[in-house]
Amino acid sequence: MAGYISGDARKVTTHRLVEMKQRGEKISMLTSYDYTTAQIVDGAGIDVILVGDSASNVMAGNVTTLPITLDQMIYHGKSVVRGVKRALVVVDLPFGTYQTSEYEAVTNAIKVMKITHADALKLEGGVEIIDAVRKIIAAGIPIMGHLGLMPQSINKYGTYTVRAKDEAEAEKLLSDAHLLEDAGCFALVLEKIPAALAERVARELTIPVIGIGAGGAVDGQVLVVTDMLGMTNGFSPRFLRRYADLHTVMTGAIQQYVDDVKNGDFPNQNEQY
Questions:
Q1: What is the CA radius of gyration of the chain?
Q2: Fewer CB atoms < 10 Å away: N or C end of the chain?
Q3: Residue 7: what pLDDT?
Q4: How many CB atoms lie within 10 A of CB 273?
Q5: What's the confidence (pLDDT) of residue 121?
Q6: Are residues 20 and 118 in the same domain?
């Protein structure tokens, strides 16, 4: 992997992502919410970093993504951008900041871009928000779409189950995907939908399609960094592969620190002035 990274250290752009799809190179994407994690993720060679509104869950402890505010997303976005040199940084527009009017959507989008210095934004939805998408793109801001399971609409769904299993919802998803591409989106996230449908979307669109629980035939994959590193417990969907068990590692290290402090072993003679 080190050789791969050192051979392609250029800044990732929306145009480069399209080039990656065209030559069949898979796109890697992870979330980050803070400066330190972003530095590590970027340095490991990730292509895209998503400052996800999943920060509402993993950083703030909320049950859903709905409570997180625009200012909180801006805080996380600024922190991440400062730690990134190569990856494309995409910030989620949170619930309630683009659904009410095109004017509010553009105003909030511009605010995020100006303050965070991010590269792009991500919005959830298709035909329902297409006018806002068009206006934001017209303002010069790149947009990544998001279809399938859309966490900001969880109260409408009432469940986190797989989406677009029936023909009507699948056809709407396909229509929305083409609509978002036609509006000028540079990429699309598909979350928790049947692999065959995701493969069809990726085949029909010229823009990159990034999957999470959408099979392996799309153009790239995204996971929440705290999930794939094993920092979180009690969340084990089929699509999640844990690449580490940091929950166990961190717990053990902290327990050892507590023991060392309690028994007077820390600090020792070499750890004081």
A1: 20
A2: C
A3: 52
A4: 3
A5: 98
A6: yes
Quickly list DSSP for 149-161.
S-GGGHHHH-S-P
Interacting residues of 179 by C-beta distance below 8 A, sequence separation 6+: 126, 127, 130
| Residue 236, pLDDT score | 86
Q: Which of 25, 128, 169, 191 is catalytic?
A: 191
55: domain range?
A: 2-242
CATH of the domain at 110: 3.20.20.60
Same domain (yes/no): 176, 262: no
Q: What's the rounded Cα separation, in Å, for the pair 14 and 269?
A: 53
Residues 207 and 177: beta-carbon distance below 8 Å: no
Report the sign of the C-alpha dihedral through residues 216, 218, 224, 225, in that order.
positive
d(CA 246, CA 228): 10
Strand bridging mode 209-212 / 48-51: unpaired
Burial 95-121 (b: 16+ CB within 10 A, else e): bebbbeebeebbebbeebbeebebbbb
pLDDT along the chain (273 residues), means of 10: 51 97 97 98 98 96 95 98 98 97 98 98 97 98 96 79 92 98 98 97 98 97 97 88 97 98 97 95
Same domain, 166 and 153: yes
The confidence score (pLDDT) of residue 234 equals 80
Active site residue 191: yes
Asked if residue 260 and residue 142 are part of one domain, the reply reads no
The DSSP annotation for 131-143 comes to HHHHHHHHTT--E
Q: Give the per-residue pLDDT at 5.
A: 43
The total domain count for the chain is 2
